[in-house]
Amino acid sequence: MPESLSKHITMTSHDEALAKLKHDMRITTANNEHSDTLTPAIAVKPQPITTKQTGKTSSHENTTALHHVEYPSRALYLINAWRMHGHLIANLDPLKLNPPHIAPDMELAYYGLNESDLDTDFPTGDLVAPATLPLKEIINILEQTYSGHIAPELMHISNTAKRNWLQQKLESSRSKPQFNNEQRKHIFNLVMKAEEFERFLHTRYTGQKRFSLEGGESLIPMLDSLIQRAGNKGVKEIIMGMAHRGRLNVLANILGKSLSDIFAEFEGNQFVDTESGAGDVKYHMGFSSDISTDNGTVHLSLGFNPSHLEIISPVVLGSVRARQCRRKDNARREVMGVLVHGDAAFAGQGVVAESLNLGDLSGYRTGGTIHIVVNNQIGFTTNPFDARSTFYCTDVAKLVQAPVLHVNGDDPEACCMAMELAMDYRHQFRSDVVIDLVCYRRLGHNEADAPEVTQPKMYQHIKKHPTVQAIYRQKLADEDIQSEDESMQTAKMFRECLDSVRKNNMVSPQQAPKHENSLHGRWEGFVKHSDQEPDTTVSEDKLKALVSRAVQVPESFQLHPKVKKIYDNRISMIHDDMPIDWGCAEMMAYASLLDEGGWIRLAGQDSGRGTFFHRHAIVYDQKTGKGFMPLKTITNGTLSRFLVVDSMLSEMAVMAYEYGYSVAEPRALVIWEAQYGDFANMAQVVIDQFVAAGESKWNRMSGLTLWLPHGYEGQGAEHSSARLERFLQLCSNDNMQVVYPTTPAQMFHLLRRQYKHQVRKPLIIMAPKSMLRNKASTSTVSDLATGAFQPILDNTCAGTARRVILCSGKVYYDLLEARNKHENHDTHIIRIERLYPFPAAELTQIMETYTDCKEVVWLQEEPINQGAWRQIKHMIQDALLSEQTLYVLARDALAAPAVGSMKRHNEEKEHLMAAALGTDTNQLLEYKMGWHHV
User: Fold this and answer.
1) Is residue 826 classed exposed, middle or buried when 0-12, 13-18 and 19+ CB atoms within 10 A define those classes?
2) Residue 142 is inside which H or E element, if any?
3) Is 613 left (phi over 0), alpha (psi -120 to 50) or beta?
4) b/e burial code for range 122-135 (CB count within 10 A of at least 16 → b)
5) How far apart are CA 396 and CA 403, in angstroms?
């Protein structure tokens, strides 16, 4: 009996760990004795059988009665068990740190079998093999296929076609790579370059962080195999995301970034002027290049990524979707995403599950992503048993029933085979697939770290363990593919090349590479700065022609009565000069842009109808339940399109997805809507690292619009504030726009301006809630047909102004209502509609008309420690005349955004309005909200 077989069916195991495990389970397959604690999953009736090889009869008598399943069928259950659990005893860990976890139903004894049955022919069922085989040959096939250097997990896949396809591919090849000699030499060269590149950096730039790939060098030939295979499948673009480990190696050896540029960054020739922004560390930078394949060129883009590891995942997915839309790649075959993860992050960060969940949603699907987990078996200094509750770091992928291919990182051929299989699976089924590259981290989290302090046993193994290059070099020599001398000479020549490039840099220092800006390709025609405002007007005749199309549904379509009334009103608003509300103005902004050839994507929770029942961009037939988008029928040009998406209940992944979409497609108006503005804090990392800082760090612009309902209406702490103060705190260097519009016309012009402007900056809208139906907050057709978005709105009082009140947003209508109620004629109100960039010149010009007014008050409904006050007070002060005094009126400082009692909320609002309109300053000091002098 072959040794490879006996190690699974006798007590002569392949190592002490497996023998101990079997002993602990009290299962002895050699003598077919069952422990009292083991209960077979299948009761099988024993039968006397005569083997073909020996002619001897085996009685198969044991103490457990095995009913229901005939003796020949036992092999079928054994086959199923190996498919299910073979990965548990596979040879995956290069360091061999962990014992195998043999499953009881993989044992012969589990089915009432023993060594005497090994030569008996059994049916093989759907195993890719002859119809019958001796049991030992069946087990040998299963062992090779499911427990070698490639160990698939696929039995959790409920889709029979997918599962059978994988089984057929794996079992027909026995999971054994079939590369020719030239291909194997090519794989060696890539492994060699990966290792020598890291070693060179380690010796020449000692102590500098680079987040080495050492121990996981097989990633490089894997990615090369992926690109070549993808090109042969007709893929034109690959968008890749990865964290910092191994990024420099990928940049050098896959994307072809200049070694001179990389060395220049290590040598400190990295200077970024104010025009280019703040810049970023070298292991966060992205890159793109064209790579030749046998079937044409593939454009490969590596996304810029902050240290928040997995947050790049949904950004990449959004970028892929945008490019597919642009190419009209409805089959999802020309553009694909590839994500390289770390084991600890893949298991630990929730955005991974959120991103996986996007994979098959209609508004987000990209035709499958290939995930590669570089499994170092450690996270910084944390062991797997402290990093996750799952058996594998990849178990989260079972959320979407993605197949998982575990592969030994010390076998680059197996790694490349797994990658080719993954690419074929993605192309066949347009579904996610995961490769678990089981390797190790030869150095610490960074090169100055001392990992042996916390993982002494692991690093004792690593210290003695040969490198991937050394192992593969020996294998090629043993098989007479390439001698050791040839391999060593190839490595020597590459080291000399690296050293030559570095020496040339030292003699003629390289300027730091200028980070290519985004004003080419799809970004051609856009500029970084412009004071020229676009024309956002639309003629009344055009509006009247568009409104009917914007609410038109099929003749047999039965609208809900409430929705029908809203649609009828919209026609009246445009045709009969009825006051235009927010829903109508927003719809007309979209309709007019679509008519001009625009591209609009609006996504968020319940965005089709709108959280506040105001939008109704998607309507539903009350008989059939089918949805319909009237705006989708308005198109003009090849790229004109409208899509509104009811997203899954996520903020972080969905906002990141839309950011990625906006960066990849500047010619689209991309809007992410929060159900309530407060919920945007679930995506704070996206706001901080991408929306606010992406242009400064990476010179990548985005026109993403965040629609964040904001306003204090007595709904409690989590339904009041979009945290305006946080956005304003992030504002600098003209990085984004923060607005709080107060009329439908302002929103109309704002949305059109965002699309039509030559500059792309993120737009943060503190969007209306109660204003949506406030009869004072309306506009006219003329307001839409003329004018533009105004950063400041001036509302003069009837008499001579005694006091000027500055405010922003919904509180204006509270103040206006109170002023009218008390017939106050000496208080002037100015609305700051754009809080950043702050309209200082416009405010100064207005304040110069109030030379007799000495009191200027900033009024906000948010607590004094929140809202806009602390971020804009110095800019307001600079706009005032020397004789004017600035005060602020706000709720008292509060840890929460708002109180939870409607009664208390109304009392506070009344105090605010009374104080704002009062005449006796000394008396006002007695109010709870109080006055705060600057």
Assistant:
1) middle
2) helix 135-146
3) left
4) bebeebebeeebbb
5) 11
Tell which residue, 556, 557, 565, has the closest CA to residue 620: 557
CA 804 to CA 853: how far, in whole Å?
7
Measured CA distances, 474 to 309, 407, 408, 483 (Å) = 35, 20, 17, 8
CA distance 262 to 283: 10
**Strand order, beta sheet including 237-242:** 150-153, 404-408, 433-438, 369-375, 335-342, 237-242, 296-302, 287-293
Tokens of 864: 């004094």
Given a cut of 50, whether residue 923 has pLDDT beyond it is no
Element spanning 2, H or E = none
Strands (E), 347-486: 369-375, 404-408, 433-438
Separation of alpha carbons 129 and 145, rounded Å: 12
Enter the DSSP assignment of 484.
Answer: H
- The CA distance from 190 to 480, in Å, is 19
Amino acid code (one letter) for 98: N
Q: For residues 769 and 777, what is the distance between their CA atoms, to the nearest angstrom?
A: 11
Q: Given this model, what pLDDT does residue 503 score? A: 86
CA 684 to CA 177: how far, in whole Å?
Answer: 45
**pLDDT given at position 285:** 79
Q: Quick check: 934 and 884 in contact, CB under 8 A? A: no
Provide the pairing of β-strand 287-293 with 237-242: unpaired
pLDDT single digits (tens) 705-745 = 999 999 999 999 999 999 999 999 999 999 999 999 999 99
